[in-house]
Amino acid sequence: MIELTDVSKVFTLTKDQRKIVGESKLRPKSFTAVDSISFKCESGSVFALIGPNGSGKTTTLRMIATMISPTSGTIKINDKDVSIDGRLARKSIGFMTNQTALYDRLSPYEMVKYFADLNSMDKSSFDKRCKDIFDRLNMNTFANKRIGTLSSGMKQKTSIARTIIHDPDIIVFDEPTTGLDVMTSRSIIELIRNSKDEKKTIIFSSHRMEEVQSLADDIGVIYNGKLIFSGSKVEFESLSDSNSYDDTLINLIDNS
Amino acid sequence: MSIIVSIFKKELIDVLRDRRTLMFMVVIPILITPLLVIGSIKFQEYQNKKSEQKILKIAYINESEDSLTKQLLSDQKGVKIIEGVPIDSIESYIKSDSLQGALYLGEGFLKKIKTNSSGDVKIYYKSSDLMSKSKKRMQAALDIYKEKIIAERLKQLNVDGQILEPISITDVDMATAKETLGKAIGGFIPYVLVMFIFLGAMYPAIDLGAGEKERGSLETLLSSPATKFEITMGKLLVVSLTGIVSGLVSVLGISSSLFFIDKIPVQIQETILELINPFMISSIIILMIPIAIFFASMLLSISFYARSFKEAQSLMGPLNIVIIVPLFLSLGPGMEMDHATALMPLINVGLLTKEILAGSVELIYFIETLFSLLFCAAIGIWFSVFWFKKENTIFRV
What we know:
Structural class of chain B: mainly alpha
Order of helices and strands of chain A: EHEEHEEHEHHHEHEHEEHH
Largest sheet of chain B: 4 strands, mixed
Distance between the termini of chain B: 32 Å
Radius of gyration of chain A: 19 Å
Structural class of chain A: alpha/beta
Number of strands of chain B: 4
Strand content of chain B: 5-15%
Radius of gyration of chain B: 30 Å
Number of helices of chain A: 10
Oligomer: heterodimer
Mean pLDDT of chain A: 89
Low-confidence stretches of chain B: none
Helix content of chain A: 25-40%
């Protein structure tokens, strides 16, 4: 379970960034990327975080994954405050973006083993889990080839295996299908569905409303750092007469 | 600790499979340093030979009745005397290299010599022409002339020539061949060593910092249970190791190249073998470790800051100068190892390496140098960890 309470993130702007953001005399020294947001993602459910570019989705997901710290507020993972023990929180998290984020000179096996080692998995648990994942994703034929030589589909499978090797309770996806072809996107959507069946907590950000419609149980809409909607899929659909999620999102933003 | 080891192992495998890193770490130092040494020695030999063999055209303008100077000048090897050149054309001929020099004896030169006063001679040459030895050859002819005249004058006065040599000096050089050679090549070795530690560490540092950012894998790594301290340390160890290997390979390259130079006498080769002893090797390695850690921490910090591979490369470029300047200073005249210079980073490396190679290193200076380098390495580690922990560095936009 993930729980955010009054979470804010304020970035200090550099001199150059201030020039871009503000007027000449009123240049702000900081920028509030996330402004006092609160929501909860329950185990076994899928939470979709949506909103336009630059609204604060990635910052929120990075705070959940403890890559960056909130300026104020509390984030709890499985009822434990991540600011107290970040390492423990990260042990229960699998993080994935649309970039495969792999090392070309390693093999899929070495890549997955590396993340298992970082998660302090013992050898027998790793061997069992690795065999299971590689069989399930049909990765055995290319397990020992260099990643740089693999097709994009094979790379995506490797990225999935890397994300779930330590069997995390929580999986965070930051725009996982952006820029990917249909076949590769499908493997990620399947991962989200399978993870939900395994009663994991899933949070993902996306611009693809058809994905949100088919996968999400709960939806959060973030705009200019503020959470302007948080509720179930049914509640989100009831906000507008239109069947289109795009229209509902645009209406929400226009009325905020 | 086990996470640092895991990161170290993974990064090492990754780096060793990278052709560009291997190129910078092993191939370039092992090929470039011998080429540099052999090439510069051969080039110097060639230039010297060419300059010795070059026939110099020297204008001889004599407005007196003296004939001895012309004869002495023509006795000089590689001199062709040109007569009849007007004095006011000398400058333009020398500038255009039609002439390499000119010797001018003014009116009344011989008369002054005969009346026991000083005859005026002007020698014209271009000091910027390094290949030309015209001044040296004209000077040599005039020196012989001078000696002859002095001898004649003393004879006339019935004075023994010994009167002009009140002191008889005998050189007794107490330096061993090892010391002389050590001090001579000792200036060159730290320069190559430090540069190759830097170059060997540079490419892996870019790849493990800015490269990871570009690939997006840094974000994934940060979401793993590894702390920022562990990630920095794992990467730092690999970058330091590549720097050390590169430095060692370059020294090996220099040492081996000395045996391929055919004109090095056996005695010098034996001295070189004497220089390469376990004490020298272990001392150099001990010095290399903190230098490599310091460079690795600085390079990694820049790499973490850079948005891309290309930006990291351009940010690291000026660092070369920062490294070269202190090493250059250590070669300067009057730069000696003392308690102050032993604490100046890189200057101390230059000075201490000379002492190590000459076999005259004092333990206190070695300890002081090591302390100063370890201090820099510790500051470097602290800074790179601090820098990596800054969100503005890692997620810089």
